[in-house]
Specification:
single chain; 113 residues
């Protein structure tokens, strides 16, 4: 049986990346989009947090309310995306630790953006 790194290399060579009709330009973009779409509903902690935020925002004029709410959403989205990318990066580092002799030179020159 082929080591997992070699099997993955063969598989990706035989199945080239096809972005299809997705907005993502890279595999990482598509993974993140699929991850975001997989959340059918927010867990109670998140939905309760948004309800609490909304109750604070009710005291603000509508324009300020919208500006603050949009800023909070942008920050949450940026933080979630960074955490997702970091998780993939740590997974790649884990694979390098598990298979240190596989593609050592190639993997030391490759980074996830």
């Amino acid at each position: 049986m082929l080591p997992i790194a070699e099997a993955l290399k063969v598989y990706t060579h035989n199945h080239p990346f096809d972005p299809g009709s997705c907005d993502g330009e890279t595999v990482l973009d598509q993974l993140y989009q699929a991850y975001c779409e997989s959340h059918e509903s927010d867990p109670p902690e998140i939905s309760d947090g948004f309800k609490e935020l909304e109750s604070f925002l009710e005291s603000l004029p509508l324009n300020d309310n919208n500006a603050v709410f949009n800023l909070c959403c942008r920050l949450c989205t940026a933080y979630e995306r960074k955490a997702f990318q970091d998780g993939l990066l740590y997974g790649a580092y884990l694979m390098q630790e598990l298979f240190p002799n596989e593609n050592a030179q190639e993997s030391s020159n490759t980074r996830i953006r």
